[in-house]
């Protein structure tokens, strides 16, 4: 694998990486079963992980719902690792205040951690990652 540096300061330079030593990650938002299948099959040869975007946290430490089972199944069938993308995204944008409220309360923080753990285990995710704007 060759990584080309695209900034004007590094034009024309490249870095050689052994291909199988680089983890490749991308993100997907669930769509129709047909679109999910097509997209996953098209990227499966070139990525390792696919973050399923988005599952916002709620003020009480719970997680929003997302119809992701079909997508997780397709990812697993194509030997890709599904990641749950946990966000502080609200209808008005990213909310640092929500993050502070949830993580600032030991009770709500523990509830959130337990809910993330249950999500990963019950939905067959490999893990989770976060997406937030501070």
From TrEMBL:
It comes from the Bacteria. This is Spore germination protein YaaH.
